Amino acid sequence: MELWNSTLGSSFILVGILNDIRFPELLCATITVLYMLALTSNGLLLLLITMDVKLHVPMYLLLRQLSLIDLLFTTVVTPKTIMDFLLGDNTISFGGCALQMFLALTLGGAEDLLLAFMAYDRYVAICHPFKYMIFMRPRICRLMVTTSWVLASLSALGHTIYTMHFPFCMSLEIRHLLCEIPPLLKLACADTSTYELLVYVTGVTFLLLPLSAIVTSYTLILFTVLCMPSNEGRKKALVTCSSHLTVVGMFYGAATFMYVLPSSFHNPRQDNIISVFYTIVTPALNPLIYSLRNKEVKGALRRVVEKYMPSAQSTI
């Protein structure tokens, strides 16, 4: 089979979900609305947590990182998807594909680890409230954030370099929303079985181990909550944890499907739907599920508006 010389001057063609659906205009409009929602909600949450000192606590500092990751993650994918459809040009350069893969893997890996640290934060807050500021002091918080970014970026760099070193076949069509490892390996004109095993092992390590930590944390939280004498305290803890678990389920479910399930379970259409879910839908919904509905964030919004826009405070 003839090989394609994968140089920086060459291009792939992204055949995403908008190229394989009956009403692409409607889906494009929906994706645009979700992207605007993600920008607005994550941007607002970032602004509130940064500007309101009462939200400068570990839980919201970790949430600020989650909003930043979601904002960047959806921006890596969504604008290009929309513009490609509007302009009728689905090409992406070899270098652009490598960059998109690296950024997507970094942001996805960082969110994966951050969600586990956030589960630990909730465990300490509910199960050991009197030791919370010891176990979650600022230095530990910063270490959690740094660990998430460093480990994710190192893993992403290794996978990006190794994936892009393969020779690719004459077919340049990536039947996927973005440049990711599984669809790119289908274009490789070399034996990728060993590397696919490595991707599987990495997927298990980066996804299932943090997920196990999350499940353990929330199991312990559940036992503690059921023993609480106060119905109000029990209700507040359950509401907080249920919102966190909703986010965890959406993210880990989609990521596990892409990187842990064997390739025999995948088909391009299904993978496209899953990728839309964790790159576009989840970043738009996370702030609404996690924070923008609770009293602390609403109070912060009121204080910020009263401080910087006194004339608008009557509407809040």
Question: What do you see in this structure?
Answer:
- With 316 residues, the chain is mainly alpha-helical.
- The protein has helices spanning 24-51, 58-87, 94-127, 132-135, 138-164, 181-185, 193-226, 231-259, 268-290, 295-308, and strands at residues 3-4, 11-14, 91-93, 168-169, 173-174.
- The radius of gyration is 21 Å and the shape is globular.
Number of extended strands: 5
Specify the structural class. Answer: mainly alpha
Oligomer: single chain
Strand order of the largest sheet: 3-2-5
Total number of helical segments?
10
Tertiary shape = globular
Strand content: under 5%
**pLDDT averaged over residues:** 84
Q: Unreliable segments (pLDDT under 50, ≥5 consecutive)?
A: none
Q: Describe the biggest sheet? A: 3 strands, mixed
Beginning-to-end CA distance, first to last residue: 65 Å
Radius of gyration: 21 Å
Helix-strand topology string? EEHHEHHHEEHHHHH
Helix content: over 70%
